[in-house]
Amino acid sequence: MVAKVLIAMADYGHDPTESAVPYLAFKTAGFEVHFATENGNAPACDRMMLTGITQKLLGATQRAIDAYNQMAVAQEFQHPLSWSSPEFSLDSYNLVFFPGGHEKGVRQVIDSPIMHQHLVKYFPLTAKPSEKAVAAVCHGVMVLSETKLPNGKSIIHECATTALPARFEQLAFWGTRAFLGDYYKTYGVGSDDVEVSVRKCLDDPDKQYKNSLGLSAFVVQDEKYNYISARYPGDVERLAEETVALVKMSSPK
């Protein structure tokens, strides 16, 4: 049985490395990959991470740009599903993946009440043993932390997780504020860092939130759920490898 993967994206703004590197890993693994945007529009990643001075300073590597160019011409990328369609469902997917990105456009998926409704139904089904899984990186973790159960708790309230470290976010923001303004603050100046937002949704953040400020790839897998998370673009190759392994181990033979 071929595993099915859904990559949920905003119309514009996701990080190209965090989107394309996992996509190619999923395709190489033989998975059937679909994309979904709110209304079925073909997405585009943050151009500032692909060209110009921001690309050279903090953007995608040439390898990641090549991966993005491959992904951008794929039929499934050019013709995504619509998560707001009445016919849309996550039920048939073995993996739902949320890339990150700090460009303000990613708020379209982070704040989507419709995506939250889908995840309230789907995420509990990833409790082990399960054929379903969720993976997220950077701001993608906020889609999960902002999705609330009927009791008001986040769907990942009892999970071990990581996300973009506040130290990384602050370094990028203050290091570029003079010429990029609040580009590196997705919700604007004065808003919570991603790490702070995610920690607020956890039952015991000091135990559940896992962090590393090192440059070595860092990925966290939860023990109770098929949920895996990472911090930033430097983690995504390992994230993709571990996610592929998790899906293969969990999928029916």
Would you mind describing this structure in some detail?
Keywords: Glutamine amidotransferase, Transferase. It holds the Pfam family ThiJ_like. This protein is α/β, with parallel strands linked by helices and 253 residues long. It has a single domain (4-250), classed as Rossmann fold, CATH 3.40.50.880. 38% of the residues lie in helices and 11% in strands. It has 11 helices and 7 strands. It has helices at 16-28, 52-58, 62-72, 75-78, 107-110, 113-122, 140-145, 166-180, 194-200, 205-208, 236-250; strands spanning 4-8, 32-37, 81-82, 95-98, 133-137, 219-221, 227-230. Helix 1 crosses helix 3 and helix 1 packs parallel to helix 11.
Gist?
The protein has 253 residues and is of the alpha/beta class.
Global Rg:
17 Å
The ordered string of helix (H) and strand (E) elements is EHEHHHEEHHEHHHHEEH
In helices, the fraction of residues equals 25-40%
The CATH homologous superfamily is called: Class I glutamine amidotransferase (GATase) domain
**Overall outline:** globular
Protein name: Class I glutamine amidotransferase-like protein
Keywords: Glutamine amidotransferase, Transferase
InterPro entries: Class_I_gatase-like, ThiJ-like
GO molecular function: transferase activity
